[in-house]
Amino acid sequence: MMHARVLYQMVRADFLERVRRTSFLLALGFSLFLAYAVYTGEVALQLDDYRGVANSAWLGSVIGLVASVWVSLIGFYVVKNAVERDRQTRVGQVLASTPLSRPFYTLGKALSNFVVLGAMVLVLVLAAVVIQVFGGGSRGLDLFNLLTPILLFGLSAVALSAALAVLFETVPGLRGGIGNVVYFFVWMALILLGVPQALPKAQAPYWAPVLDYTGIGTLMGQMQRQLHAMDPLYKGGSSFTVGGLNPPTKTFLWNGLEWNTATLLGRAAPVVASLLLALLAAFFFDRFDPARGRLRGATKAGKSKIRVADALPSNGAAHVAIASAAQLTALAKSEGRNRLPALIAAEVRLMVKGKRLWWYVIAAGLWVGCAASPLGIARAGVLPFAWIWPLLLWSAMGTREVQCLTGSLVFSAARAVPRQLIASYVAGVMVAAATGGGIAVRMLAATDFAGLAAWSGAVLFIPALALALGVWSGSGKAFEALYTAWWYVGPLHHIRGVDFMGTTAGSSTAAGYAAAALLLVCVAYAGRKYRLALA
Fold first, then answer.
1. Are 74 and 220 in a shared domain?
2. 386 and 502 housed in the same domain
3. 199 versus 358: which is more confidently predicted?
4. How confident is the model at residue 408 (pLDDT cuts 50, 70, 90)?
5. Which of 43, 186, 350, 394 could connect to 37 by a Cys-Cys bridge, CB 3.0–4.6 Å?
6. Could you give the CA distance from residue 427 to residue 347 in angstroms, rounded to a whole number?
7. Are the C-beta atoms of residues 278 and 110 closer than 8 Å to each other?
């Protein structure tokens, strides 16, 4: 009983601290946006030319998939800061001095993450009721068929995301930006586990729902079997996507899921897995002990201090040069000169600082692949990987002053905001042009000026997006999450309109992305001024 009370107080305190943050309100706003996208048809579930009649069962099923698929993705990045926040605020050191065990701590953090993500699911529940009552839904309000898919699909999926967030924060190699990218592909792999249940004209194994983490295979499988029985000409296709679908021409009556034992076990499986993952995180958790996993960094810091000390004169005297009036005048004149090239060079050095030789070798290999491959293969197959490789370089743009607590120093100089912002942006553009430059050489050789224009638009757009998100969020997570998902949906699948890299002819609007880049730089400038005004 005592442990349960401590766990409750820990989760409650963590949740109350989070709800005071702007990021929590933005997360709830994102849930409302998803519900609105369902209402307007931007987020749609179709089975070839069919969609369900707009009753409670259909709306609950669609929003249930929205909760389990999209909230589980975005929610991970919302809550993946619980352990790091305790580390930065030094609350962790206080907790480390108590008898609080490592499994108890990681379980508590997983539960607090789940409560935050559960609040996002509850917003979808309320939105579903409003849409069904006031949005012109048919056949009245059926609360069971409306709310059950949202709660069971959504809460079970976000439970796993909540535990994975804690696990990623405790594993040293996954704490930072690499973990943010890795999670996207873990999320994709988990979704694909449920695909076999949605195969047309095939009965999945009885235990298959246990592997269906989002419930998308379970839901589509039952819908497909109903349509096959109703329409023999149904080809077995199904899509759950954001836009891009042809308007449906037929409807069918969907009365809700069949909640059998296997389906319920499928909803229980992610919850059980989340508990196991939270306990597994305890194995990697360093309990805020600087001697575990950070000894190397401390040693390096110590060595750097020794080198500074060795640089002092042997007699310990400090030689201070007193500038004359003529020297001060010369200094003032030199400060008035344009120091932007030096700032850009410094920003480039900061971006690539700490990168090992193998990083440059892979970047060079991708550059050569872009330059040497046939143009179509280079654009569609090699370029997306050449521009996902510098992701962590771009994600640091606009965030260093917050993460390293150097804002008061950097922005105390004259005209620091526009100069530093321009320098950071130009450095990002240089990285984009350098890593993707192989395809530019190839396009010039082939006189493909339309493709070169699309390439130029991407070179301008990618760092602008990173800079704007970094300045406003103060963290690289927003860019890492958005860019990875956008890269997968657009350039990797060559979808027209969202392919900002122009991986196929005509799939990118160069002028549009160049204009968006200019707008994003202005947004970053406004964000910088706003944050400095609040400081």
1. yes
2. yes
3. 358
4. low
5. 43
6. 6
7. yes
Rounded to two decimals, the pTM is 0.77
d(CA 117, CA 146): 20
CA 313 to chain centre: 50
**69: nearest Cα among 126, 164, 153, 181:** 153
Structural domain for 378, as ranges: 339-534
* Residue 440 placed within a domain: yes
Asked if the structure places residue 334 within a domain, the reply is no
Count of domains observed in the chain: 2
Q: Where are the alpha helices (DSSP H) in 259-356?
A: 261-284, 295-310, 325-336, 340-352
pLDDT digits (tens, 9 = 90+) for 475-529: 888 888 888 888 887 888 777 778 888 888 777 788 889 999 999 999 999 988 8
Q: Same structural domain for residues 201 and 64?
A: yes
Task: Please tell me the predicted confidence (pLDDT) of residue 472.
Answer: 86
User: Among the three residues 284, 303, 328, which one is the final residue of a domain in this structure?
Assistant: 284
Nearest alpha-carbon partner for 131 in 117, 141, 120: 141
Q: 46 and 156: one domain?
A: yes
Q: Which of 284, 299, 323 is the last residue of a domain?
A: 284
Chain centre distance of CA 493: 18
In terms of Cβ atoms closer than 10 Å to its own Cβ (0-12, 13-18, 19+), residue 16 is: exposed
Instruction: State yes or no: pLDDT of 229 exceeds 60.
Output: yes
470 inside domain: yes
CA distance 157 to 68: 5
If asked whether residues 254 and 357 sit together in one domain, one would say: no
Do 274 and 382 lie in a common domain?
Answer: no
**Going by C-beta distance under 8 Å and a sequence separation of 6 or more, which residues neighbour residue 398?**
424, 466, 467, 468, 469, 470, 471, 524, 528
